[in-house]
Amino acid sequence: MKTNYQYPLEPDWSAKDIETVTTLYRHVEDAYELPQGVNRAQLLASYLQFKTVVDSKALEKNLGRQFEQVSNYSIYKTVQAAKK
Questions:
Q1: Four-residue CA torsion sign, 48, 58, 24, 77
Q2: Contact 44, 83 (CB under 8 A)
Q3: Minimal CB count within 10 Å: which of 5, 47, 49, 50?
Q4: Burial degree of 83 (CB within 10 A; 0-12, 13-18, 19+)
Q5: Alpha-carbon gap, residue 13 to 28, rounded angstroms
């Protein structure tokens, strides 16, 4: 686990958008870091909310890559595991 990193965010997002996106980031971190993981329903709900802010597949992939670079945690792999 890396500490003291900055979440990838877009400068034109509102405070509500930033809160929505960081909620998903925190849930992904919890999935990796907490012994009990994260609640599957909460993770998937936060991903759906994330998709209302990040409606472009290209931006989603870009943010996912940036997040994985700074945290070593994959949004894609976490969401895919939760969907199974």
A1: positive
A2: yes
A3: 5
A4: exposed
A5: 20
How is residue 11 annotated by DSSP?
T
pLDDT digits (tens, 9 = 90+) for 61-76: 999 999 999 999 999 9
Report the candidate in 2, 5, 3, 7 with the shortest Cα–Cα distance to residue 54: 7
Q: Give pLDDT, residue 1.
A: 54
Q: What's this model's pTM, rounded to 2 decimal places? A: 0.92
* Res. 3: pLDDT tops 80: no
CA-to-CA distance for 1 and 48, rounded, in angstroms?
25
